[in-house]
Amino acid sequence: MSANRKSTRTRVGVVILILGCGIGVPAFGFSGGTGEPNNPYQIATPADLVAIGSDSNLLDKHLVLVNDIDLDPNLPGGRVFTDALIAGGNSTKPGAFAVAIFIGVLDGRGHTIHHLCISGKHDSATGLFGIFEGLVKDLHLEDVRISGSSCGAFAGDGSGGTLLRCSVTGKVAGSNFVGGLMGAASNLTLFHCESRADVVGDTNSVAGGLVGSTGSSGQVMECRAAGTVTGGDSAGGLIGRSDGAIILRCAAVCQVTADQIAGGLIGHGPGDGSVADCYARGSVASAVVGGLIGNLDNSGANDSRILSSYAACDMLAPPGSAESPVGSGLFGKEQWPWQPSIIIGCFWDKELPKVPLMAGPYPANYGTGLTTQQMQQQETFKRAGWDLGYAWAMPEGGYPVLRWELAEDGRQR
User: Fold this and answer.
1) Does residue 294 lie in a domain region?
2) What is the reported pLDDT for 17?
3) 49 pLDDT above the threshold of 80
4) Which pTM does this prediction carry?
5) For the segment 265-281, what is each residue's pLDDT rounded down to a tens digit?
6) In the chain, at which end, N or C, are there fewer CB atoms within 10 A of the end residue's CB?
7) Backbone angle region of 406, left / alpha / beta, with phi > 0 → left and psi within -120 to 50 → alpha
8) Is 1 within a domain?
9) Number of other residues whose CB lies within 10 A of the CB of residue 221
10) Confidence class of residue 13 from pLDDT cuts 50, 70 and 90?
11) For residue 364, which phi and psi values (nearest 5 degrees)?
């Protein structure tokens, strides 16, 4: 064999060896993985996380956090972001088309992203995701500072997809639809999620402790919110506006304030949807107040259904107003009084409101007002047919709580 032929073959072999060693090496600078379901990209650093939003080809990939991540702007290399980290650049103006949508999977594996700070642009969907239609599970956001138009810690707009066992603390503030986890969620499923973020909307906003607004195909199950919620048009401890979603075994313990309409659990809703095995505690302040729902919207083709739920809320006039609010213990007013809703086994604590509740033009006289003592007696709810085995539990000397909350709080301790 000639020296030249041997040299050429050697060079070819070296190239093949190099390429072969490169098989399976992560692209895009991730810490590992190939983005496939059985080998997701590994997110270990702030740079890894930011890289997801750098290429539209990554928006349908499988990703997994392998470390907690701190995005504190005060750390070396840290910054305040001006758009969603992933699937950003989406306008919320009427008629605008989405330019990027996350449809992949992000598995947090119980890890936490700390100190996400976003000062979003006007008319932009703002959050960890801009527009979200994928799956995020077991991810926690701690001490967020988010602002924008249609904004939430996890996403500005959830037009589909699922959030599973996710949580947030911090503050979310903005306009349009504002929520602790999600700004607007038209077809989203939320299961076992929690918000302890303070939510602040401007004078034209719809604000909710968990979600600003959710649509007809939404499902919110075993979720809860705690903190303060401030909105303009409407505000709710859990959801600002619900247009037909199914809300099951959820809780809100919040201080809710709005200019127009406020509810301890929902500001405006549930439309064609239903509320079952839910409660609201805390305070509600607005021109129209309801311990559970501010404006009982039963204008849909199907009856609104409120089942086995209660409110134990103080109800107040909006700040600076000398007039008593319009409302009642469960519902502030009923949108279509000639189309009755289905209200079964619902109660409110009639001792808590410190101001007289005026009867509005269409008061919703549903539910039963009870004394605090009656609200804390198991027999009250047994007689009403509540499920005290699977859905509810009765702590001694307290209001009913959801049984899943006891299990969750026990694990946290």
Assistant:
1) yes
2) 30
3) yes
4) 0.89
5) 999 998 888 999 999 99
6) C
7) alpha
8) no
9) 17
10) very low
11) -95, 95
Amino acid code (one letter) for 84: A
Is 396 inside any structural domain?
yes
**Mean pLDDT score, 227-253:** 96
Start-to-end C-alpha separation, the chain: 75
Give the Cα separation of 102 and 323 in Å (integer).
47
Of 207, 69, 73, the residue nearest 151 (C-alpha): 207
CA distances from 264 to 187, 306, 402 (A): 23, 14, 16
pLDDT given at position 80 = 95
CB 190 within 8 A of CB 211: yes
Taken in order 115, 116, 121, 124, the sign of the CA dihedral is: negative
> For 144-161, how does the pLDDT look when each residue is reduced to its tens digit (9 = 90+)?
999 998 999 999 998 889
Residue 279: which domain range?
Answer: 41-412
The yes-or-no verdict on residue 355 having pLDDT over 80 is: no
Answer yes or no: is 311 within a domain: yes
Q: Which residue has the tokens 């499988």?
A: 62
Amino acid at 180: G
- pLDDT tens digits, 325-350: 788 888 888 766 555 678 899 999 99
Q: What is the pLDDT, as a whole number, of residue 10? A: 39
Q: What is the tally of structural domains in the chain? A: 1
Q: Which two tokens stand for residue 241?
A: 């506006």
Q: What is the identity of the amino acid at 10?
A: T
Look at strands 140-151 and 251-258 and give their pairing. unpaired
Confidence of residue 187 (pLDDT cuts 50, 70, 90): confident
3-state DSSP percent of the chain in helix, strand and coil, to 5: 10, 40, 45
Kindly write down the DSSP assignment for every residue of 155-191, as one continuous string: EEEESS-EEES-EEEEEEEEEEEEESSEEEESS-EEE
Q: Is the dihedral angle over the CA atoms 273, 279, 282, 287 positive or is it negative?
A: positive
For the residues of 202-241, what is the DSSP string, one character each? -TT-EEESSEEEE-TT-EEES-EEEEEEEESSEEESSEEE
Cis ω before 361 (30° cut-off from 0): no
CATH of the domain at 309: 2.160.20.110
Whether 311 and 340 have beta carbons less than 8 Å apart is answered as: no
